[in-house]
Design a protein that fits this description.
This protein has a single domain (11-201), classed as Maf protein (Alpha-Beta Complex). The protein is an alpha/beta fold and 203 residues long. The protein has a six-stranded mixed β-sheet. Helix 1 (19-29) links the parallel strand 1 and strand 2 (35-38). It contains five helices and six strands; from the N terminus they run E-H-E-H-E-H-E-E-E-H-H. It has helices at 19-29, 54-69, 103-116, 180-186, 188-201; strands at residues 11-14, 35-38, 73-82, 123-133, 139-150, 166-168.
């Protein structure tokens, strides 16, 4: 296996147009003093997510941004995997919200489909793939996961996406109710980010 490539630049692009994801990633990067900008700020289009896994889609997005802007880019591909729905919505989590990014509709769709299965198994996981890519095509990818249980109706407005229906194991509140500082320590994104930092940012 080839050695990990270290990130030693002063700036990188976060390859997302999702303001919730951007906000969380910027906060995670804050201690490193890196100048962070978004793909949207660079006028970069969102590439079509044709991958069949979270990592494949994260790599696709990170490479598109890195090559488009000529500088390193960090991309996230994440979603909710519901056990009783065979892992759906999974990599299609954003698509369930439709063009309007209506996650109230997406959460209702999860509830409806769960009820159709009998609704007894409410186990789920949030999964996050993070990819750091360079313009020369090199990528470093990491996968984080947190398990939990779904609750309805949705609770809380502190998160984004499916956060209001997800209670992480060991807690009794949803991601939508959890203090963002706590979420940043335990989330699927935080777990993937910790691996990234250990491999690519540590001295």
């Amino acid at each position: 296996m080839s050695p990990r490539r270290r990130f030693d630049g002063p700036a990188l692009i976060v390859a997302t147009h999702n303001q919730g994801k951007l906000r969380e990633i910027v906060e995670l990067l804050q201690p490193f003093g890196i100048a962070v900008s978004s793909a949207a700020e660079h006028g970069l289009p969102e590439p079509e997510e044709t991958g069949t896994t979270f990592i494949a889609n994260a790599e696709l997005k990170a490479l598109a941004a890195a090559r488009g802007a000529g500088m390193p880019a960090l991309a996230d591909d994440s979603g909710l995997a519901v056990a009783a729905l065979d892992g759906a919505p999974g990599i299609h989590s954003a698509r369930w919200a439709g063009p309007a990014k209506d996650f109230a509709h997406a959460m209702e769709e999860v509830r409806r489909k769960l009820e159709a299965t009998g609704g007894r198994d409410r186990r789920a996981a949030f999964i996050c793939a993070l990819t750091l890519a360079w313009p020369d095509g090199h990528v470093e990818s990491f996968l984080g996961r947190i398990d939990g249980t779904l609750v309805f109706p949705p609770r809380g407005d502190k998160g984004f996406g499916y956060d209001p229906i997800f209670v992480p194991d060991g807690h009794d509140v949803t991601f939508g109710e959890l203090d963002p500082e706590v979420k940043h320590r335990i989330s699927h994104r935080a777990r993937a980010f910790a691996q990234l930092v250990g491999a690519c940012f540590a001295a």
